[in-house]
């Protein structure tokens, strides 16, 4: 039997028995309670890994229990079950520190997934208890906000490598906060009192790029009337952040590789090597491994850059952070523009939670800023309709000839799921993304059709 101990708090006897049976059959150690008061007594007597609580529990609520847990046993995983349609309860639970919420009625697999998610969150909090305390103030300074397990993993990696001089490659979609992560690495390092120089590699004119990055001697090119100090030389003893590294030309890739190998540069028009101490942090939204295969990026440079990769999650992968981020940006932009707006209502949170956020955290911040400036809720929720929940490319839909006699839809769906899983070599996360389907929905369908990855 698993040593993971789950406390189930539910005042409905039949519901509680069903939940306990599911968890017990899944090899969890289960204890049950029918009210908040009994649950608190059990928490005082035992160490639980996760608490699964209903929202409505007599005179008290699951939020009352959550507040007690976060105050007294803050590492414990917590999931709250809410009645269908009560999104305001779910939002409040996430804001108060619940690891997830589960709308009723729910399926067996959905229950087990939320328990697994809470266990992972608990494990990360246990590993990072000291880190969380150290970063609580730092995160506000550098703008990184979020409690989702995937963000906790980012904080953990930043903490581990920030004090070193290791080269870091930050990966993620546009708008996920890659530069904020780079600044966090710099601010937590022993270089924090030195320069942090950020460069967008895609915004440098090709004709000036070498001089811009590595400097140039007087007379090296037309108009070079004096010696020019490049960005790398200016960043000596500090950190240089190369954003959109995938846009770097092949000649500049060779120069950068030499610096990473030797720690030296040569100004344009000179053969004298200059020794520098610069930490390099690079970032890209591109798949550099694919770029290497396509011949667009040097393989040796990729491995030099990819010493420590940090993956910045997309906003849709950290949905529980959306209410927290929304409140954060309202406070930031209200202070910045000296504006005051009413707090968001449950319908607004619902719209934010349902949206796909192709522009990630940057898009959310921009929408919040526009809402604050105009004090118009429509500016925040406009066009966040179900039609925009994903970003379908209508041109890539497969053509299907429908037979006149009809066909078995469930068999077709099962075959489509199985083929997609095989195509991605059993990687469920990639398969779900390929089908533009939430991970939970994808796992539900796999279980529905009894499809097992290899």
TrEMBL record:
Sigma-54 factor interaction domain residues: 144-373
PTM annotation (4-aspartylphosphate): residues: 54
Pfam families: AAA_lid_14 (PF25601), HTH_8 (PF02954), Response_reg (PF00072), Sigma54_activat (PF00158)
UniProt cross-references to SUPFAM superfamilies, sorted A to Z: CheY-like, Homeodomain-like, P-loop containing nucleoside triphosphate hydrolases
Keywords assigned: ATP-binding, Nucleotide-binding, Phosphoprotein, Transcription, Transcription regulation
Domain Response regulatory: 5-119
SMART domains: AAA, REC
Annotated signal sequence range: none
Cross-referenced InterPro entries: AAA+_ATPase, AAA_lid_NorR, CheY-like_superfamily, Homeodomain-like_sf, HTH_Fis, P-loop_NTPase, Sig_transdc_resp-reg_receiver, Sigma_54_int
The keyword Magnesium appears for this protein: no
The protein's name: Sigma-54-dependent Fis family transcriptional regulator
Organism (species): Thalassomonas haliotis
Lineage per the UniProt record: Bacteria, Pseudomonadati, Pseudomonadota, Gammaproteobacteria, Alteromonadales
């Amino acid at each position: 039997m698993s040593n993971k101990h789950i406390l189930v708090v539910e005042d409905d006897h039949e519901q509680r028995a069903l939940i306990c049976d599911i968890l017990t059959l899944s090899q969890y150690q289960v204890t049950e309670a029918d009210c908040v008061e009994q649950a608190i007594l059990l928490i005082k007597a035992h160490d639980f890994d996760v608490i699964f609580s209903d929202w409505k529990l007599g005179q008290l609520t699951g939020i009352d229990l959550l507040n007690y847990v976060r105050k007294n046993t803050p590492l414990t995983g917590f999931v709250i079950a809410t009645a269908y349609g009560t999104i305001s309860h779910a939002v409040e639970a996430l804001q108060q520190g619940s690891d997830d919420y589960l709308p009723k009625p729910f399926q067996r697999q959905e229950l087990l997934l939320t328990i697994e998610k809470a266990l992972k969150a608990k494990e990360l909090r246990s590993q990072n208890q000291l880190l969380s305390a150290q970063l609580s103030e730092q995160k506000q300074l550098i703008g990184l906000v979020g409690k989702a397990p995937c963000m906790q993993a980012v904080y953990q990696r930043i903490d581990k490598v920030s004090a070193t001089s290791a080269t870091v490659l930050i990966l993620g979609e546009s708008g996920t906060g890659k530069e904020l992560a780079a600044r966090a690495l710099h601010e937590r390092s022993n270089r924090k009192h030195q320069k942090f120089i950020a460069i967008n590699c895609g915004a440098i004119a090709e004709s000036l790029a070498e001089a811009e990055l590595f400097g140039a001697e007087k007379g090296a090119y037309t108009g070079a009337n004096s010696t020019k100090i490049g960005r790398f030389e200016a960043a000596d003893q500090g950190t240089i952040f190369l954003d959109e590294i995938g846009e770097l030309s092949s000649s500049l890739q060779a120069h950068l590789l030499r610096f990473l190998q030797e720690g030296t540069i040569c100004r344009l028009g000179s053969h004298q090597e200059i020794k520098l101490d610069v930490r390099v942090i690079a970032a890209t939204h591109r798949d550099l491994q694919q770029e290497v295969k396509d011949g667009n990026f040097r393989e040796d440079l990729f491995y030099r850059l990819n010493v420590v990769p940090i993956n910045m999650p997309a906003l849709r992968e950290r949905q529980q952070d959306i209410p927290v981020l929304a409140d954060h940006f309202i406070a930031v932009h209200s202070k910045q523009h000296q504006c005051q707006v009413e707090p968001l209502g449950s319908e607004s949170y619902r719209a934010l939670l349902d949206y796909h956020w192709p522009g990630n955290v940057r898009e959310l911040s921009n929408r919040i800023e526009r809402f604050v400036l105009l004090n118009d809720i429509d500016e925040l929720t406009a066009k966040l309709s179900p039609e925009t929940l994903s970003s379908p490319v209508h041109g890539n839909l497969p053509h299907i000839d429908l037979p006149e006699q009809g066909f078995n839809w469930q068999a077709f769906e099962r075959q489509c799921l199985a083929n997609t899983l095989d195509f991605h070599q059993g990687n469920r996360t990639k398969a779900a993304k390929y089908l533009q389907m939430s991970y939970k929905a994808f796992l539900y369908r796999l279980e529905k059709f009894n499809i097992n990855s290899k």
